[in-house]
């Protein structure tokens, strides 16, 4: 890989903290190498404090752009020149593109989610979704699904720090899209069951199912699910969460972890920077061949 870096190499960043564990540098650098693109992708420890300087550096150093992750996804917005409409609705940015000094913010988690379903030839447009979670992932999924034509979204959340965001998501969707969104507390178990029963897809975008909650699932009763529905967990470590095990026990045919979404959010950013399609199958094979679902 070193041989392909020279004086013309174009730099892409990843600005977050903590970030050294991220798979994104491996994903993007291998994709650049596979396509013979003269780009390099590097992770930088950037907290809110360093963020203004780091964003300035994108312009100063002529970087093509950057990924942005926690704790900077919201804080970065006032530092940019333009926002993609979906990023504006979500209120968060995970990808920056630098066009000759003009920085535009995008969010690719939601498009990554939708694309990962398209990859499986599954179409939820015109259908109903029940979604648990209104954090970063839940918000991006809800907004993009609504923008893409999902007919109804029933959002469930704890009455915790994310409840206000959940209310905001429902208001944004109802005001700015044709989708009908409703919000319920996760305490309303009967409603939770009946909404899932009426949905084409159930998506869990909470952290339940991954460390330190890897032994837990919001749903423990397989009878919540129909065999012909989609059950999607945004968690990808472990590859098979408790929720996925319960869905499989119920005989659900289409059960997914968050790996496809993670790869596709990266692929969407890759396309924005390079104009090229990321070789997603190659990257999947390279990074996750030993751990497929
Ligand atoms: P976040 O902290 O922004 O939001 C967490 C959400 O989980 C909130 O809605 C919160 O209310 C809910 N929650 C937390 N603990 C809960 C509990 N015990 N019971 C019920 N709900 C609970 O986190 P995030 O960035 O949105 O990440 C959420 C999940 O999505 C994580 O598992 C993360 O790994 C995953 N994720 C996956 C991708 C991907 O590409 N596959 C991308 C982003 C996030």
Automatic annotation (TrEMBL):
Its EC number is 1.1.1.25. Shikimate binds at residues 22-24, 69, 94, 109, 236, 265. Pathway: Aromatic compound metabolism; 3,4-dihydroxybenzoate biosynthesis; 3-dehydroquinate from D-quinate (NAD(+) route); Metabolic intermediate biosynthesis; chorismate biosynthesis; chorismate from D-erythrose 4-phosphate and phosphoenolpyruvate: step 4/7. The active site is at residue 73. GO terms for molecular function: NADP binding; quinate 3-dehydrogenase (NAD+) activity; shikimate 3-dehydrogenase (NAD+) activity; shikimate 3-dehydrogenase (NADP+) activity. One of its GO terms (biological process) is amino acid biosynthetic process. Pfam families: SDH_C (PF18317), Shikimate_dh_N (PF08501). NADP(+) binds at residues 133-137, 234, 258. It is an enzyme of class 1 (oxidoreductase). Involved in the biosynthesis of the chorismate, which leads to the biosynthesis of aromatic amino acids. Catalyzes the reversible NADPH linked reduction of 3-dehydroshikimate (DHSA) to yield shikimate (SA). Belongs to the shikimate dehydrogenase family. This is Shikimate dehydrogenase (NADP(+)). It comes from Loigolactobacillus backii. The lineage of its organism: Bacteria, Bacillati, Bacillota, Bacilli, Lactobacillales. The gene is aroE.
């Amino acid at each position: 890989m070193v041989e392909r870096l020279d004086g013309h190499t174009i730099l892409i960043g990843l600005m977050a903290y903590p970030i050294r564990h991220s798979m994104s540098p491996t994903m993007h650098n291998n994709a650049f190498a596979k396509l013979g693109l003269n780009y390099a992708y590097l992770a930088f420890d950037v907290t809110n404090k360093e963020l203004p300087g780091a964003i300035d550096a994108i312009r100063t150093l002529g970087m093509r752009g950057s990924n942005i992750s926690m704790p900077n996804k919201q804080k970065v917005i006032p530092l940019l020149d333009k926002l993609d409409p979906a990023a504006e609705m979500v209120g968060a940015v995970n990808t920056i593109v630098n066009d000759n000094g003009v920085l535009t913010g995008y969010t690719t988690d939601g498009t990554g989610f939708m694309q990962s379903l398209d990859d499986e030839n599954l179409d939820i447009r015109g259908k109903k979704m029940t979604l648990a979670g209104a954090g970063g992932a839940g918000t991006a999924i809800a907004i993009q699904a609504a923008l893409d034509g999902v007919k109804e979204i029933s959002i469930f959340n704890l009455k915790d720090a994310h409840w206000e965001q959940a209310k905001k998501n429902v208001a944004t969707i109802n005001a700015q899209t044709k989708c009908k969104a409703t919000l319920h507390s996760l305490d309303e178990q009967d409603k939770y069951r009946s909404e899932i029963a009426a949905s084409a897809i159930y998506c869990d975008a909470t952290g339940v199912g991954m460390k330190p909650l890897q032994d837990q699932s919001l749903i423990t009763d397989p009878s919540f699910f129909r065999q012909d529905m989609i059950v999607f967990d945004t968690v990808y470590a472990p590859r098979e969460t408790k929720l996925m095990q319960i869905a499989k026990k119920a005989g659900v045919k289409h059960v997914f972890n968050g790996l496809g979404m993670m790869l596709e959010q990266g692929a969407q950013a890759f396309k924005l920077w390079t104009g090229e399609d990321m070789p997603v199958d190659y990257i999947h094979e390279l990074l996750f061949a030993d751990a497929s679902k």
